[in-house]
Amino acid sequence: MVGLKEELLKSIWHAFTALDLDRSGKVSKSQLKASGGPAGVLSHNLCTVLNVPHDPVALEEHFRDDDEGPVSNQGYMPYLNKFILEKVQGNFDKVEFNRMCWTLCAKKNLSKSPLLISDEDAFKVWVIFNFLSEDKYPLIIVPEEIEYLLKKITEAMGAGWQQEQFDHYKIALNTSREGLSAWELIDLIGSGQFSKGMDRQTVSMAINEVFNELILDVLKQGYMLKKGHKRKNWMERWFVLKPNIISYYVSEDLKDKKGDIILDGNCCVEALPDKDGKKCLFLIKCLDKTFEISASDKKKKQEWIQAIQSTVNLLRAGSPPPHKEARQKRKELRQKLLAEQEELERQMKELQAANENKQKELETVRKQLEAAAARAAEEEKKRLQTQVELQDRFSLELEREKMVRQKMEEQVAQKSSELEQYLQRVRELEEMYKQLQEALEDEKQARQDEETVRKLQARLLEEETAKRAELEKWHLQQQQTIQMTEAEKQELENQRMMKEQALQVAMEQLKQLELERKEALEQYEEVKKKLETAANNTKSWKDKVAHHEGLIRLIEPGSKNPHLITNWGPAAFTEAELEERQRSWKGKKATSE
């Protein structure tokens, strides 16, 4: 629905822009509100051809008075979308719709100069323009689409395409504008610039063929023979192949339609051998019917089979018709190229900006170099001047140094004699120093011997002191050990006494348990004897009863609690009694401890 809406908007845009405008180029609010005004007439006609109910009240309500100022020609679009286009279902005649819009805009915009095409052909070119134009307003057709359309028309006329001629035209067009309007395109085709040598009828037929393909979605058409389903006779029909249907008519004027062949992904087409005197046969199989058709020759037969099979393949794949798919691909390619061009322009701007920055940097560096060169020249001049001054100063210093040197030589000669005398005195002092050094060495050796003896005495004294401290330490340890041994002995004695007491208590408890066990065993023997006596009595009684009364089984009472088994036989008390006695023993033991 979005694609259909865009196609409708293009035609409506032409009709709307052809309305009477005021001097500011806008449609007045009164013209929009009035149901009898231009906008009201346009809305009514649109509702009529699009099979949408017209509501004049909604038009006046939509453009009610407010304080928003004058309404521009774009203000009509919200009303158009809400009350008309949103209600379109697609059950309308596209050619009639386009013809209505053409009628509203052609008289005002169509060129007054004579054209080599008729008004009908101009109308078809206008509809083709709306199909191929860009999706932006005001509508224009770009040079690539102009080339595509002119090529299609040239091929339909059976003429050769003049690429060089169009390239010159394209260059001239690109220098002035981005593309052509619908009326400029009509003037271009109607001028015969790209159809020289062709008569009006040939151009008209070519435009009609391109119109049928691009607008009416006619993929192929022509006369063929069709076999009837009832009478089985062969009749000549004009077949028109569209993306999802094959319609056949009595003649090519399309006035008397005889039927349709609905195509879907389940259909198939097959070639048939010649039969019944008919040649170039093929069969179209659908879900409910099959159609036998005879082409005029083998070439036509093959063309129709390929065209129908391609259409079925497109239906299976869910793809649009070839010309619409090709248009979409061309648009995508243009958008891609435009994006690449914009990216290239952006990069060029960045490079240009970077280049300008580099130029500025180079200019700055050049100025810095010039300033540095000027400073270097100034410094060189100062250096030369300083060098001359230094040379003069050096000459004066050299003369002064010569005079000082002479004085120094005289002083050196005087000092030399004094030095000889001084050296003689030094030699004498050195001899005296040597003698003194030897006396000091003897004294030092004697002191070292005395120090060695003193250190030996001190070491012996320290050893004696250390041994005495060690003996005192051992003595203290022995005393501590003796004290600790006595305490441990006393503790062990106390523990032994406690353990002996605990052992006596345990022996007494054991004796008490032994006595209790003996008493329990005696009680058990007595009870056992009683049970044996009772069992014997019961057995003799049962034997008597069985002898006199027959098979009678008496139910004997069982033990209420299970008996415990000890090493000496069944216990004389239950498990609960045993637990009670164990608790009693533990209590007595805790008390004794």
UniProtKB/TrEMBL annotation:
Its main location: membrane. GO terms for cellular component: cytoplasm; lamellipodium; nucleus; plasma membrane. The SWAP complex consists of NPM1, NCL, PARP1 and SWAP70. InterPro entries: EF-hand_SWAP70_N (IPR057836), PH-like_dom_sf (IPR011993), PH_domain (IPR001849), PH_SWAP70 (IPR057837). Pfam families: EF-hand_SWAP70_N, PH. Residues 217-313 form the PH domain. PROSITE patterns: PH_DOMAIN (PS50003). It is found in: Cell membrane; Cell projection, Lamellipodium; Cytoplasm; Nucleus. Phosphatidylinositol 3,4,5-trisphosphate-dependent guanine nucleotide exchange factor (GEF) which, independently of RAS, transduces signals from tyrosine kinase receptors to RAC. It also mediates signaling of membrane ruffling. Regulates the actin cytoskeleton as an effector or adapter protein in response to agonist stimulated phosphatidylinositol (3,4)-bisphosphate production and cell protrusion. It comes from Copsychus sechellarum. The keyword Cytoplasm applies. The keyword Mitochondrion does not apply. Residues 323-544 form a coiled coil. Signal peptide: none annotated. This is Switch-associated protein 70. Keywords: Cell membrane, Cell projection, Coiled coil, Cytoplasm, DNA-binding, Membrane, Nucleus, Phosphoprotein. One of its GO terms (molecular function) is DNA binding.
